[in-house]
Amino acid sequence: MGAFQRLFKGSLRAPEVGGDAIKEVFQNNFGDQEPIIYEYGEVPVVAYSADDPLPHFFYSTFGISRVNSSTPVAGMQTELTIRIPRDEALPPSWPAKLLNRVAQYLSRTDNPVEPGHHMDFDLPLTDDSTLTSLIFVTDPIMGVIDTKTGFVRFTYAIGMTPTDLNDALIWDARKFAGVFGEFFPLGLTDPDRAPLRDIDKARSILDDVIGRQGSSLSAVMANYLDFTDDDPLRLDLTTTSAEHLLRAVRYRIKFDRNFAFVSRKKWVEMVPGEFEAEFEKDHLRLGIPDQLANEILATFGTRPGAYAMTTAPLTIHVIDPTR
């Protein structure tokens, strides 16, 4: 019995567990092709060669959802997918390792990954790649299926350059993926790709919509976050959160929209309006007037240090989490 039969044991004729519906989707899309199976952790990753709508390699996890169960569960389950250009005879292993890395993160943190989410590795996705992050959307071909245990979404990862991720965050990740697909069919993750905005027509589209619509990103997770009710108020952020703060002020607060930082212990909500700090045990609601927003954009930076504002009693302390 081959690896395909061992992993995908069971009949497609009489589905009994959640994984049977997933196997059926694979068979409908790839026929009787036997996939290459990568097992780097608890969740295997399968890879197929596809010809339609253009040649590419397709990868999917098989086991984040309840593939071996027949017990229905509430909520949306997921399997992760990614597609890359078919430039080699056999699918390379790095996309499988990448999906496994994301799957391990989901298992370790119990955080869901949903359309519109992103994951920034701050390192190349593979050796010498221009891509350093992922944004997630619903898989454009696999979509959402109904299984014995409930609905399972194939959540599609698209590799992004730092420039791409910035454009996605200051606008809308799902809408960005839509524009991306107009220039890169299927949203293939090409590890050597240049940023989307290097294409003149794409840059014009992005500049227009970002300038008119601002950002849809209303909150981000923060690895570290703290605040004090001293005078002046002090807000502690990491260097990564400092980057999000600048984006939030320019593309949320200046568009009269709220923004929040959320950590495991505390969260900070920023709202346009008069300067006001409302404290609870684990929550700070901070009013940001236009004058303070302008000062943050003009004087605040992402390097570690203390940034004392002059238009409001506020000091923002930026911390390097690696030190």
TrEMBL record:
Domain of life of the organism encoding this protein: Bacteria
Domain Suppressor of fused-like residues, every copy: 48-193
Alphabetical list of Pfam families matching this protein: SUFU
Leader peptide range in chain numbering: none
Entries under InterPro entries matching the protein: SUFU-like_domain, SUFU_N, Suppressor_of_fused
Alphabetized PANTHER family for the sequence: SUPPRESSOR OF FUSED, SUPPRESSOR OF FUSED HOMOLOG
Protein name, per record: Suppressor of fused domain protein
